[in-house]
Amino acid sequence: MSEADTIDRAAARATAERQELGAEAAVGVLRPSSRLARHRRSPLDRPRFLYVIMAFVLVFLFAPIALVVVFSLNATPSLATFGGFSPRWYEQLMHDSALLSSLFLSLQIAAATTVVSTVLGTLLALGLVRAKSRWTRPTQTVMVWPLLNPEIATAVGLLLFFSQFGLTLSPTTVTIAHITWAIPYVAIILRSRIVGLDPEIEDAAMDLGATELGALRLVVMPLLWPTIIASGLLIFVMSFDDFVTSYFTSGSGVPPLPVAIYSMIKHGVSPEINALGTLMIVLSVGTVLLALAVFRMRRPVAKGEAVVDLTGSGVA
Amino acid sequence: MHRWVWRLFLIPGAMWLVVLFVVPVGFIVAVSFGTVDIVGAPVYGWHPGNYTPILQSIYIRVLLRSLTFALATTVICILLGYPVAYFVVRFGGRYKGLLLGLVILPWFVDYLVRIYAWVSLLGDQGFLNGLLHAFGMPGSPPLRLINTPYAVIGGLTYDYLPFMILPLFAVLDQIGDAVIEAGKDLYGTPAQTFFRVTLPMSLPGLMAGCVLVFLPSAGDFATAQLLGGPNSYMMGNLIDGVFEGGGFWPFGAALTALVLAVLFVPMLLYVRYALRGGGVLSG
After folding, report:
1. What's the mean per-residue pLDDT of chain B?
2. A121 vs B13: CB contact, 8 Å cut-off?
3. DSSP state of B278
4. Inter-chain touch A265–B106, beta carbons under 8 Å
5. Nearest to B84 among A37, A54, A177 (CB)
6. Is the domain of A28 the same as that of A101?
7. Tell me: the pLDDT tens digits for A138-158?
8. Which of B90, B106, B110 lies at the smallest CB-CB distance from A241?
9. Same domain, A33 and A140
10. Is residue A166 included in any domain, yes or no?
């Protein structure tokens, strides 16, 4: 055995002893004598593993999406090897009239959903905050429930409802179904904004002679507009992207885009889906970034707060 | 202005939700006890027998599988989501908003495009198998990744991870640095400060995150359809099979009612929590 080895072993033993000492000291925590504990290294103090997990999650989240985008530009149909850049899948997409009509149908459904649910959701939020009545709490329960209910159950219920009343499944039934989950979303986002308003602003307006309705129109609404527009943009994206509800409530005509994509994937992968997916990523992410920018216009917000507020503290 | 004007504001939205959400959920239960006429339209009645096929082992197995997948997804989301939320709050610094935005952004990519991304990554002709093949791994495909339970759980984690991170971020962000400092001043090690201060204070957000991940995972069907195949089918796939495959609607309604019944407890927990001011409805 070489001398270096012996020294290494001695050093290792010393380290182990120190660690044991540290562990003992830690047991005596909250006792002032154990000052060692304050300086003991811990993974939570030097969060190298936190950096690792953070990096892993970012790769986990973005690698699959990046793959879709990269292979949408592939010159060959392979999804495994890249054979040079080519816009051929985008060209093929531009000539796919069935998919294009699905795309326009989804845009129409999203637009109608956005308008109706934003109006009804904003009214609901105002009513919830201002009308203190015994109906407030039941209304809140009815409002949270659709967000938690498994989407497939909501969709099946609507399917049974529509067929019971003889409504033929069509883009109209899809829109009605989307509005149903969109109203609670708008109402929850708007509600937290209204609750956060300073009531003195309104009082001031009324002291200056405005009626309550006048104060709402002239003072409160201008403060709410950025939030209303931002939540409208979010609803647009969510409706445009919605699959489960659209799947159960659309009829035999032109399918909404996500339903069309579903049957395409079922038949097998194709780079055309990559091209379509890339366009949808650009559209959705662009709209969300716009929503976030509008939302931050309202006032300087703490970092990250806009994201949390806008997503209703994570209820989806 | 009188209070009744504000109450008028409540009416359109509340009526919409009652007629188009509460009533349809009632229809699920009603149809599940009914039968159908000769053209397949629901006829209401008392036929609890619609539920008896569910007791067959195949359906029980699918139900247990759905709950297992959802539970596994929830656990993985905690293991990944808690460190991420903690990291963003404590070590994000001036990039806090940007980091949170980055973690949430993929959720706004279309649900089916995200699943498709995984299909193209894990498929037999997909990217990973292409890589393995290029490195000389034999077999065609070199590794079976798609059509496995792992692919489904991975896909579900990908779908719902942001729902864990957001509520955790919200609670962790509320914990002031002063509290953490106090823990250290009382000679707590970082680990003790975490387990006796940070973790207990973040429990409401953790609970909310678990419910928000578990519920949609348990009710999912497209992920299992496209990444799992028949051996990984979940309750949603059975429901889909009945309604889109021309099956007996009362049985499909019974399956849906069963899912609702199983998930009712976590839903109720969350609604109570939210109404007490802990969650989305807090001022």
Report:
1. 87
2. yes
3. S
4. no
5. A54
6. no
7. 888 888 888 889 999 999 999
8. B110
9. no
10. yes
Same domain, A31 and A139: no
Distance from CA of A175 to the nearest CA of B (A): 12
pLDDT computed for residue A36 by the predictor: 46
- Name the residue facing B83 among A50, A248, A316 (closest C-beta): A50
DSSP letter (8 states) at residue B109: S
Round to whole Å and give the CA distance between A59 and A41: 28
> What is the distance in angstroms between the Cα of A23 and the nearest Cα belonging to chain B?
10
User: Domain for residue A34, yes or no?
Assistant: yes
This prediction's pTM: 0.84
Establish if A89 belongs to a structural domain: no
CB burial readout B105-121, b (16+ within 10 A) else e = bbbbbbbbbbbbbbbbb
ipTM of the complex model: 0.89
Between helices A48-71 and B111-122, what is the axis angle to 10°?
90
Among partner residues A126, A143, A152, which is closest to B239 by beta-carbon distance? A152
A306 and A197, same structural domain? yes
Q: Give the residue from B7, B9, B240 with the most A CB atoms within 10 Å of its CB, the best one to mutate.
A: B9
Q: What are the sequence ranges of the domains in chain B?
A: 57-246+264-275
- Same domain for A174 and A296, yes or no, is yes
- Which residue does chain A place closest to B209, by CA atoms? A314
- Inspect the interface and report whether the beta carbons of A150 and B216 lie closer than 8 Å: yes
Residues A122 and A258 in one domain: yes
User: How many domains does chain A fold into?
Assistant: 2
User: Which domain, by its residues, includes A18?
Assistant: 1-40
The reported pLDDT for the residue numbered A27 is: 44
* CATH 2.30.30.320, applies to B57-246+264-275: no
Average pLDDT over residues A89-108: 92
Shared-domain flag, residues A122 and A250: yes
